[in-house]
């Protein structure tokens, strides 16, 4: 009996010793596995993996190539109108891009109308608002502006309550306002436009319906896949123009305007970085810079998702999609202007060539009002980040944006110029 007990105790002791020796190995293996899974998670872009199935789903609903003609002049919707969304993020030069459409006499242009929703629903996270943004866009493209009242505290909302109204060529021109003629090319003086306060939304809707091309520019759609239902809707047949910019230049510009971008950076981070609590609790003294810097990583993730999504898309999507780089737009403005108008089915306006050249051949880059459109030195605007970002800041952006930079042909610091 004693021998049996001794043997049992011996087996238990040996087994216990083996377990003790095995635990560190398991912990180390588990840690490495988590790291590997995390790396794969970042590389595979799970949101994108889900989006890849989007095209197959839409194809299964009867979308076919014949519904989307190749000719740019025949790409309009079943209503006979052309609808274009300028897909961008903050500080990429999207306001300048939008101005090229705002100035065109055949375009009804809306500047960041989704701003109203983000302000009204703050601090809601950006991802949860994507469906509502799409629904709002669908209404606006159909010249139904009543949706804006849902996000305004003013029950008697007028055109002068719209974001960016003082620089809107339609709102500030005849017949809605006597300050300007619609076919006159040039930046709007907001002080002159103020004399036309109070234009009713119903009048703006009526004016919208007269224009053959409706363009919306915004920065709050995080995923191109959100727009897919609008791109397949025959009433809209939405076309998308996406602008990219060197991530280092974007980061530099965002830091310069960091106080103005804090709220929206928080909304982006809440939806895409829930797992990383460190991004949401910076020290008070560095809070603005931390939020804005952290959101830059999310922006590059979104860009990567969009680029790969388009590469996997069927022809009917690619025919309705155009991408361009800010650097190309300001260094070769006339060429890119023609490219934009050709894609959009818009006629070339000779005065616009002079306008775009003047806007990119200004003096200096700095502006006391960074969100205002003004004439600037294009080359200084492109390379200002080289002088203003520290080596550490540049390395950080290049580290988490390296794949996007490679796909968009932006060289890292140890390479050639962009």
UniProtKB/TrEMBL annotation:
InterPro entries for this protein: Carbohydrate_sulfotransferase, Gal/GlcNAc/GalNAc_ST, P-loop_NTPase, Sulfotransferase_dom
Domain Sulfotransferase per the UniProt entry, residue ranges: 82-407
Membrane topology note: Single-pass type II membrane protein
Keyword field: Carbohydrate metabolism, Glycoprotein, Golgi apparatus, Membrane, Signal-anchor, Transferase, Transmembrane, Transmembrane helix
Pfam families: Sulfotransfer_1
Enzyme category, top tier: transferase
Transmembrane segments: 9-27
Annotated compartments: Golgi apparatus membrane
GO CC terms: Golgi membrane
EC number assigned by the record: 2.8.2.-
Superkingdom of origin organism: Eukaryota
Entry GO MF terms: chondroitin 6-sulfotransferase activity; N-acetylglucosamine 6-O-sulfotransferase activity
A GO biological process held by the record: carbohydrate metabolic process
Family assignment from sequence similarity: Belongs to the sulfotransferase 1 family. Gal/GlcNAc/GalNAc subfamily.
Protein name: Sulfotransferase
Species this protein is from: Erpetoichthys calabaricus
